[in-house]
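Bug report

Summary: structure tokens for Porphobilinogen deaminase differ between web form and batch submission.
Environment: batch mode, default settings.
Steps: 1) Submit the sequence below via batch. 2) Compare with the web form result.

Sequence submitted:
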Amino acid sequence: MLLTIATRESRLALWQAEHVKTLLQQQGHAASLLGMTTRGDQILDVALSKVGGKGLFVKELETALHEGRADLAVHSLKDVPMELPPGFALACVMRREDPRDAWVSPGCASLEELPPGAAVGTSSLRRTVLLRARLAALGRADVRIEPLRGNLDTRLRKLDEGRYAAIVLAAAGLKRLGLGGRIRRLFSTDEMLPAAGQGALGIEICEGRADVQAALAPLADQATWLAVEAERAVSRALGGSCSMPLAAHATLEGGAMRLRAAWGDPQGQPRLVTAQGSAAVATQAEARALGQRVAADLQAGGARP
Ligand SMILES: NCc1[nH]cc(CCC(=O)O)c1CC(=O)O
């Protein structure tokens, strides 16, 4: 069948859409891209959490699906709101790329090596609270964490212009664009717990498009799908907003899922509330139940939306 893929036009979004296009072609379908600019791509001078959050990157794509100009939209799952608007469905979650955060710095191999008063750039509240907690543990209250917006090329350019000593961003995006060589160090998931869905691609369709759903089925990765269902359930239970400094990361081995989550107050003490849980998980409902349990533990520990 002929499938039109709605995509943002950043280099990373286009890479991801091309990747899906190639996989669909390998399945014997004809596929083409419909590129578009979203509000999230236009507003670059304000922190995302202040201008409406994740939905900004998906709304225009959903309009194209709704109007029948496209059959599917490819998203970084991390940017997809926890609740899709009525009439839309997450039809496919693909195998996850590296979920870790990366340290990119021309001068410093790690946090420990930062010169006094150095600035570290990052674009998310999650990274901000995780970095503040690590810096506090190192006794480095002098290090400043400063906002960094824009697509990957823009962020790297701001680093190269010397505005930051280092930046922290998702390894997955860098690797997809062949920029893995810029990574100075990968944080383990214990050091910097990833965001819900980080590194995974999700494909959105209009509900009821059984034909598109069937075409996408071979692209799905069930283990990743179950893991991100658990991660997104944590976020959803806590209000699902991207103005919430929340990390949630699940792994699945031999049917056993381990889910870890962390929350920090961006204005308060550089202290994290953490929770974790394990369960045998074979269905999306079981994955969500584990996510809800871990979210309840976070809230009991003081996390709030
Ligand atoms: N919020 C932006 C965003 N959305 C998806 C990725 C790439 C990594 C991924 O697929 O999770 C990035 C860049 C980043 O966080 O540094």
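Above is the batch result. After comparison, the two runs are identical; trailing whitespace caused the diff. The pocket of PBG is lined by residues 76, 78-79, 169-170, 172-173, 198-199 (CB under 6 Å). The mean pLDDT is 94.
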